[in-house]
Specification:
There is one protein chain. With about 55 residues, this protein is mainly alpha-helical. The chain has a domain of about 35 residues. The protein has a two-stranded antiparallel sheet. A hairpin with a 4-residue loop joins strand 1 and strand 2.
Length: about 55
């Protein structure tokens, strides 16, 4: 049986896109996204109310 290991998110890169794990320097942008009521209406998680909420993501 295969057991997925999500302890480290892989970095996936193409010519136009980079998918990677969150980094501490992403906290400001994550806070903007996670605190937006319209965005979070489609995500089944509570809105971030502080920057610390985004950092703990």
């Amino acid at each position: 049986m295969m057991v997925p290991d999500f302890s480290r998110f892989p970095e996936l890169r193409t010519e136009r896109l980079l998918l990677r794990d969150h980094r501490p320097e992403d906290a400001d942008v994550l806070y903007q996204i996670r605190s937006d009521e319209r965005t979070m209406a489609y995500i089944g998680r509570p809105r971030a109310t502080t920057r610390l909420d985004a950092e703990e993501l």
